[in-house]
């Protein structure tokens, strides 16, 4: 290593000139820049100032000016010891703008900058044709040509994917728009314009399951992942967790993510309302909800929104449950009453009965009536049954998903129905003349991912301002 002469040792390490304003802060031979406390800058990155290129010093000055716009002020009480200064310096540097660029070799030319660099207003300091500040180059790289691009015209990165919680998801998919979207999706699904394969079931710990349900259409693609964990009750956690991811059908990019349980609950209630709209002879005046769980609440909200003048009866596994449910959600409908007469016949004024339980014994097994529509929702496995064989035997039978109902509609499976006599709701939606006239109807819904896709269409329309 060559020893410096005495004359060289007395030169300022920053500007390499004797008797400058900087040199009075530096001892002979010391290769560090003065602290510059008047500008609030700690000692850091002095390699730029050790170089004699005025352009590099100017780049350094501009870069430090931009950093001071965003870096937090350092409290005086944490600058005491060397260790605290080091910690403060690291904290300040971590708060600086992200000025990363694409990797370059030692003789490469800067082609582009990341959009975050422009978003933090560093572009205000440069003009097209100027050089990039040396402090922003990777170690060992040097810029041999000026920038060829206008920094203000650099492409921005894609926005962050929006994730909506339960409340926001509910606001995006109102029931009226959801029923219309489900009507369209039902017809497209029957025409195989929507692909919705059978759901994949994967076991989790303690009897839980993970459900994977994708669906695609020419305009949209979705994938719903739902975890059902029955052991969550003692933990104080919801039994169902999940998300519905929405994708662009052309590029595959993620558009937004909705809350899975809310999408499932609202589209299930909406498909029941579509059944009422399709099969009821007239606008219902009275409903009976059998069940007091989450699905009962979703259906109560849907009835209150779409049939605001209707009266709603609620029947629970015990009279106290029905009374508590009505007291808690009395504001969801114009009139809501508990049905507490065990063993009593359902009033003849009830136009629609909706079963919303996971019972393994029939909870509704009355004689079929032409003026009453019966809808089964809760039984989704062959071992579950809500509607008895007596009701099913005297009714015209319809389902929302003909393929899924054959191995999920426990009511029909246990009744031993002839599946050739079971129709899909899409056939009636496409041709209203096929709706049974003066004949009792039982409509069974089992759900599929195509209905989740319909909900995502509604959300996309709301987000786009349509």
Secondary-structure topology with pairs:
Layout: H1 6-9, H2 47-50, H3 54-70, H4 82-94, H5 115-119, E1 162-163, H6 166-172, H7 175-190, E2 200-203, E3 209-217, E4 220-228, E5 240-247, E6 254-259, H8 260-279, E7 286-290, H9 294-306, E8 311-315, H10 319-328, E9 335-338, E10 352-355, E11 373-376, H11 389-393, E12 396-399, H12 402-408, H13 410-415, E13 422-424, H14 425-430, E14 441-444, H15 449-463
Parallel strand pairs: 1-6, 7-8, 7-10, 8-9, 10-11, 11-14, 12-13, 12-14
Antiparallel strand pairs: 2-3, 3-4, 4-5, 5-6
What does this structure look like?
The protein is an alpha/beta fold. It folds into 3 domains: 55-153, no CATH class; 162-262 and 454-463, ornithine cyclodeaminase, domain 1, CATH 3.30.1780; 275-448, NAD(P)-binding Rossmann-like Domain (Rossmann fold, 3-Layer(aba) Sandwich), CATH 3.40.50. Helices cover 32% and strands 15% of the residues. The protein has helices at 6-9, 47-50, 54-70, 82-94, 115-119, 166-172, 175-190, 260-279, 294-306, 319-328, 389-393, 402-408, 410-415, 425-430, 449-463; strands at 162-163, 200-203, 209-217, 220-228, 240-247, 254-259, 286-290, 311-315, 335-338, 352-355, 373-376, 396-399, 422-424, 441-444. An 8-stranded parallel sheet has the order 9-8-7-10-11-14-12-13. It has a 6-stranded mixed sheet with strand order 1-6-5-4-3-2. The termini are far apart. Residues 50-67 have a biased composition (Basic and acidic residues). Residues 31-91 are annotated as: Disordered. Keywords: Lyase. Its EC number is 4.3.1.12. This is Ornithine cyclodeaminase.
């Amino acid at each position: 290593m060559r020893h410096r002469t005495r004359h060289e040792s007395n030169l300022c390490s920053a500007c390499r000139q004797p008797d400058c304003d900087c040199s009075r802060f530096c001892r002979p031979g010391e290769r560090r820049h003065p602290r510059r406390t008047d500008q609030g800058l700690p000692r850091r990155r002095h390699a730029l100032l050790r170089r004699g290129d005025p352009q590099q010093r100017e780049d350094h000055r501009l870069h430090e000016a931009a950093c001071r716009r965003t870096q937090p002020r350092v409290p005086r009480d944490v600058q005491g010891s060397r260790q605290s200064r080091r910690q403060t310096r690291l904290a300040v540097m971590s708060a600086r703008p992200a000025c990363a660029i694409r990797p370059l070799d030692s003789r490469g030319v800067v082609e582009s900058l990341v959009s975050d660099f422009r978003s933090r207003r560093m572009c205000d300091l440069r003009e097209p044709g100027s050089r990039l500040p040396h402090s922003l180059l990777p170690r060992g790289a040097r810029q041999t040509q000026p920038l060829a691009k206008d920094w203000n015209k650099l492409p921005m990165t894609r926005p962050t994917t929006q994730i909506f919680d339960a409340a926001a998801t509910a606001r995006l998919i109102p029931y009226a728009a959801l029923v219309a979207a489900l009507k369209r999706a039902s017809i497209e699904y029957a025409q195989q314009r929507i692909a919705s394969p059978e759901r994949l079931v994967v076991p989790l710990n303690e009897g839980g399951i993970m459900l994977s349900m994708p669906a695609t259409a020419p305009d949209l693609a979705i994938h719903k992942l739902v975890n059902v964990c029955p052991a969550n009750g003692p933990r104080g956690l919801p039994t169902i967790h999940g998300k519905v991811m929405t994708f662009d059908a052309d590029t595959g990019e993620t558009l937004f993510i909705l809350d899975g349980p809310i999408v499932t609950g609202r589209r299930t209630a909406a498909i029941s309302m579509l059944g009422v709209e399709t099969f009821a002879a007239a606008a219902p005046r009275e409903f009976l909800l059998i069940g007091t769980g989450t699905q009962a609440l979703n259906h109560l909200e849907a009835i209150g929104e779409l049939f605001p003048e209707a009266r709603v009866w609620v029947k629970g596994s015990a009279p106290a449950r029905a009374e508590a449910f009505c007291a808690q959600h009395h504001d969801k409908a114009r009139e809501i009453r508990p049905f507490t007469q065990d063993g009593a016949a359902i009033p003849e004024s009830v136009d629609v009965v909706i079963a919303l339980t996971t019972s393994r014994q029939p909870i509704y097994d009355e004689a079929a009536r032409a003026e009453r529509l019966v809808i089964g929702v809760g039984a989704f496995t062959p071992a579950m049954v809500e509607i008895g064989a007596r009701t099913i035997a005297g009714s015209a039978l319809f389902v929302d998903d003909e393929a899924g109902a054959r191995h999920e509609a426990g009511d029909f499976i246990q009744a031993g129905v002839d599946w050739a006599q079971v129709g899909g709701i899409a056939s009636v939606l496409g041709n209203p003349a096929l709706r049974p006239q003066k004949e009792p109807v039982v409509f069974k819904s089992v759900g599929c991912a195509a209905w989740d896709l319909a909900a995502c269409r509604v959300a996309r329309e709301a987000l786009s301002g349509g």
